[in-house]
Amino acid sequence: MNQTPKGVRPCIGLVGRRNVGKSALVNALTGQEVSIVSPVPGTTTDPVDKSFELPPLGAVVFVDTAGLDDEGALGGARTKRSEQVLQRLDLAVLVVECGVLAAFERELLTLLKQQGKRILVVFNKRDQRAPTSEQQSWVLQASVPSVEVSATALQGIEQLGTAIALALKSLETPALVADLVRPGDLVVLVVPVDVEAPKGRLILPQAQTIREVLDAEAVALVVKERELGTALKQLNRLPSLVVTDSQAFLKVAADVPESVPLTSFSILMARAKGELDTFLTGVNAIDRLQTGDKVLVAEACSHKVHGEDIGTVKIPRFLTQYSGAKLRFDVRYGQDFPEDLASYKLIVHCGACMLNRAAMLSRLARAEAAGVAITNYGLTIAHTQGILKRALGPFPALQQRLLR
Ligand SMILES: Nc1nc2c(ncn2[C@@H]2O[C@H](COP(=O)(O)OP(=O)(O)OP(=O)(O)O)[C@@H](O)[C@H]2O)c(=O)[nH]1
Ligand SMILES: [Mg+2]
Q1: For residues 257 and 168, which has the higher predicted lDDT (pLDDT)?
Q2: Do 327 and 228 lie in a common domain?
Q3: 399 inside domain
Q4: Which DSSP state fits 155?
Q5: What is the pLDDT of residues 17-51, one digit of tens each?
Q6: Residue 223 main-chain phi, psi, to 5 deg
Q7: Cβ < 5 A residues, ion ligand 2
Q8: 52 in the same domain as 23
Q9: Ligand 1 in contact with 42 (CB < 6 A)?
Q10: Does the CB atom of residue 256 touch ligand 1 within 6 A?
Q11: Is the dihedral of CA 94, 99, 103, 106 positive or negative?
Q12: Which tens digit of pLDDT belongs to each residue from 214-225?
């Protein structure tokens, strides 16, 4: 995989009214014909993703969206999809036409602010006229940066790139293991290679973890679960950390000495992409599950389902065995995350390596707003197998919370 995966690219969305030049701007920024530009309002109907190397920032993904002011039945469906797009944006580029400022623009800016988004206002079609003084004071009062451009005359496009880079500068990507590892440490990574493993490569959380261990000047030893016992015996020192695939937790926990901190890729992802604290609170809801309760299993990648699939088979099996209750499961893939969460007793989310942090945090916020407990695959597996405390080895503060 030479391409930076989407889950770790900052996501920049162009949003606004129809026909303001959102698609023309994506084309101007990328220098490519990514989206269709036309004078007909409502040309873009579905969000269009374009991965791009934006200097000086690097790998990003631009999302061209359908105009949010769309009306009518079909328009309503489109707008809904575009509103879903807002959730995964790290930066919302609000495109406004020079000279046009109505309730729509004001309300959209307020909505984006309420969602805690980074915002950049772009006054487009500068070749026709300048932004009005009302528009100038609008962005000034809202303390939102703005730039003036012309997408078709290619004016101000470089400045727009710089403004985007500046707006995203503070975006931190939390570490998977970098902060848990010191130079010279030995980290053992247990990586099952089963039918679900992609052909010829490792999955993203594994590849990212190896890279972070190497960046930390530490040593990574990668083994399958079967070779773990032998490998540990051959070492002349104990590893300072063992990270396993959650599905091999029990076997790995048996092979690794108690004194060695142990955790899973999925728990590391939960920490980097979401809030481990929130997921840990959510685990408690497993103990309260009763017959008839509905559980949402959310899997962010839309991979092919195999026989012993984790989302459709294993998680439901673990939860059913542990709770002894007859539960109802609803498994959703990819971007498909239900609008109405209130009917669920519990949400069990995957590690979310294919989602960016903004998207995962927005799902957590929605679960909280609906008053539904949310946890993740790794914590669920560890808890239902009775090794949750052990699985939080590198996080003593969280282990303490379990005891209380
Ligand atoms: N004069 C001028 N026209 C522009 C500029 N940018 C876009 N346009 C024109 O505005 C019209 C709409 O452009 P699009 O890029 O399709 O607009 P959009 O916001 O993507 O529209 P929807 O997909 O319908 O929501 C097209 O006719 C473009 O040629 C600009 O900077 N100056
Ligand atoms: Mg468009």
Answers
A1: 257
A2: no
A3: no
A4: B
A5: 999 999 999 999 999 999 999 998 888 888 899 99
A6: -135, 160
A7: 23, 43-44
A8: yes
A9: yes
A10: no
A11: positive
A12: 999 999 999 999
